[in-house]
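re: ur question from yesterday

yeah so i grabbed the chain u mentioned. its 456 aa long if i counted rite. heres the sequnce exactly as i have it in my notes:
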Amino acid sequence: MNSQQRLALVVAILASFVAFLDGSVVNVALPAISRELGGGLSTQQWVVDGYLITLGALILLAGSLSDVFGRIPVMRIGLWGFGIASLLCAVAPVPEFLIAARVFQGVAGALLVPSSLALIVSMFSGGSEGHAIGSWTAWTSAAFIAGPIVGGAFVDLLSWRLVFAINVIPIALTLVLMQKLKATGERVENAKVDYFGGALTIVGIGGPVFALIEQATFGWSSPLIFGSLIVGLIALALFLVRQARSLQPMMPLALFTVRNFSYGNLATLFIYAALGMSGFVLVVFLQQEAAWPATLAGMAALPVTIILMLLSTVFGKLSGRFGPRLFMTIGPIIAGLGHLMMLMVTEQVDYWWQLLPGILMFGLGLSITVAPLTSAVLGDVKKSQSGIASAVNNAVARIAGLVAVAFLGIITATGLDLAGLHRSLIVCAGLLFLGGIVSFAGIRNPRPHQANLVAH
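ran it thru and got these structure tokens back, copy pasting raw so excuse formatting
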């Protein structure tokens, strides 16, 4: 790497780091938030999903904004917006204010992730691109897993409100480093922003999620619940019709004719649904049912972070050499087995014998999966479409997580007690197995001559 490439990689990692960190850091603070502001499981779900709805829905729109205004300007606006929204979360007086601030935070987060990965793709090529993507994946995935650890320490030693202030330092550092970055990110001529399409995605995702979360309160027979579900599904259908007819679609449907992109996103859907659900249920169960301090509950997943940091880049390189199919098949299956091993948990939780073996297995499987998955999804896509392709994949990942959390009220039935935890872990394992099966059936390795071109 030359100095500008190294700087671009650091900026891309830091910009995405805050979005991924905030996607999970709040989980460990949910019981403390409930105690101070009130609200039960549905409020906790909304604090998580309010962020993920706008993040997942607007990532596609953010890809268009990057084409029109350039990657660096869009990232800069996203960083400022994320910082302001984080401060609003920290001073929230009531649950509704906090949820609204989280929605705003998701809007800002949507501007960060696709632009950062597109910046990497524009600055690297060949084998160095795979290495850079592997590094980006390792750090951002570690941020997602490390969130509960950092958040737990803040909750126990300081306040849940300061959990949202964690972002200030990396945001400030990123803004400073961006001043030294010469690359501005090319703007696409005659590109347009489909604001109406963005509105359709918010309604299309928000409606069904509202129905899934609030059905426990109003019941499925309620016109509010049934109506929200129907309106949301209609909005999603209209969004797809609009994309098919648009000359400049936010989500070019032709991308899904690329085999690895299509199957890679289907695998992403299953894998990240499992990650979103397990990240939520474990930290909440350990605090509310097992009476663990927030710090210890957050540290439960520390081995996953360490394994990701050590192995993601390694498996990214191996994927570049041998192709992603094998790794995307065995990785999710190993992670799924890790979740089944966690079924040993009883009401008297023994971390070392009941949780740790499954967590280690989960971490190994995840490290095998994440970098090859990213490389497979983007590997066969034209460079000119790398930004929108990464935006689609990130949108799928975030939407998968938020829908999984929204389903928790149905899956747990009696709440996040031991039986609810076990049901959730079984569902997570099943989703991960499906991710591995889809990868085996659909992902194809590059032909030898293509692999040689990438390697050289």
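noticed a couple things. Residues 449-456 have pLDDT under 50 and may be disordered. also DSSP finds 19 helices and no strands in the chain.
anyway ttyl
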